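Working notes for the structural subgroup meeting. M.R. asked for a predicted model of this chain before we commit to crystallization trials. I am recording the input and output together here so anyone reviewing the notebook later can reproduce the run.

Input as submitted:
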Amino acid sequence: MTAPTTYGLSSEARNLHWLLTNLVEEVPGIQSVAVVSSDGLLLLSSDPDLPHARTGSRGDTPAERSRTARPAKGPRGSSADLATIVSGIGSLTVGAAKLLDFGGVKHTMVAMDEGSLFVMSISDGSLLGVHGSAECDMSVVAYHMALFVGRAGHVLTPELRSELRKNLEAESTGSAR
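Returned structure, recorded in token form:
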């Protein structure tokens, strides 16, 4: 995770970290995950460089995976890149839904040659974004995202969003909590 330290965080924040870690570890093919606030700020993220976020067979050793798996492709730079993409797609689809008068957007799936991108509404405009490998099962990813949203939606209060944002800022500047 980008912010693996949960020391000093509330139990709700620690639970959200646990839910995100579980999503990444349990769903094959997920390369990175971002939780983004309604104003596009990264709140929580997985780390695409961790072995559990790479594609490859489950149950083999990290050394075997590094020899056989394709290098992970995806947003370059930082987890903020995924947050930017998720926020932009979320904004675009909300605008399209308003223009078409079809109601609120529940989720968006983009299938590409080398991977997939999933965006799902959590609450108050917050979004869950998942970047999956080309081999991921889109229905399994969508199902597990819906579980995450169902569990996280009621705890993602303005206070918790503020706490998560401050935690990310503190860790990015190198200050200890």
